[in-house]
UniProtKB/TrEMBL annotation:
Residue ranges of domain AB hydrolase-1 in the record: 3-222
Protein name listed in UniProt: Esterase
InterPro entries: AB_hydrolase_1, AB_hydrolase_fold, Sec-Metab_Biosynth_Hydrolase
Signal peptide: none
The species this protein was found in: Arthrobacter liuii
Pfam families per the UniProt record, alphabetical: Abhydrolase_6
Domain of life: Bacteria
């Protein structure tokens, strides 16, 4: 199975490097992506939109012979949901890592401070304690050293969806900062935050207790969780 790995904010393809070995050892083909404007700290991010990132992933998917599994971490969840909307017949499963699908008209995070076309990684004090669980000083230093500003148009841009067949794409949500029981409670209560997820017909929830960056804090466990979801989906 081809597995496309979409990083979250401030990260590139290398952020998956501790996760992919388990997937490849199981015989899968991994495709960790570096999205437009995130090639380096000096890259030009002017005019890059959320749709541009979605289109970049669609182009990778279109180049493959069959279906693929999409994995999106954090803000990458909005991107893979846009891909599932654009190519619902090409996505075998969408796996959201401490993330979820972003509905029509939603934005990923337009409260992050921007500097021109860039949204730099904020100071750690800006994050909730739950985000930073298990992210020790060494991991924080390594993260900040590799961090690339996010394009402002991706963080602030609105999601646009058009094909309701996306609700038929099977979904796995790997919950890290909060337990899956809380997510179920939000769905049952009709919380707007999970309105798009609630409309998906086949959803499984997998608990992986840690902070917001399990690819750094618990990469082996994350690899196994992704592998389990892929194996339950079947292969082509």
């Amino acid at each position: 199975m081809d597995i496309i790995l979409v990083p979250g904010f401030w990260l590139d393809a290398s952020s998956w490097e501790a996760v992919t070995p388990a997937l490849e050892a199981a015989g899968h083909r991994t495709h960790p992506l570096t999205l437009p404007g995130k090639e380096s700290a000096d890259a030009d991010r002017a005019g890059i939109s959320l749709q541009d990132h979605i289109d970049a992933v669609v182009a990778v998917l279109d180049a493959m012979p069959g279906k693929a599994v999409l994995v999106g971490h954090s803000g990458g969840g909005a991107i893979i949901h846009g891909v599932a909307d654009a190519r619902p017949d090409r996505v075998q499963r969408a796996i959201y890592v401490d993330s979820g699908p972003l509905g029509e008209g939603g934005v990923i995070n337009d409260e992050l401070p921007a500097e021109g076309d860039d949204v730099p990684l904020p100071p750690w004090e800006s994050f909730d304690d739950a985000d930073l669980v298990d992210l020790d000083d060494g991991l924080r230093q390594a993260f900040r050293a590799r961090a690339v500003p996010e394009p402002r148009g991706v963080a602030y841009g609105r999601q646009h969806l058009q094909d309701e067949r996306r609700y038929g794409v099977p979904v796995t949500v790997i919950t890290c900062e909060f337990p899956s029981t809380m997510l179920r409670e939000w769905i049952a209560a009709g919380n707007p935050f999970v309105a798009e997820l609630a409309r998906i017909r086949d959803v499984e929830l997998v608990d992986l207790p840690t902070g917001h960056w399990p690819q750094f804090t618990k990469p082996d466990q994350l690899g196994r969780a992704i592998l389990g979801a892929v194996d339950r989906t079947g292969t082509e």
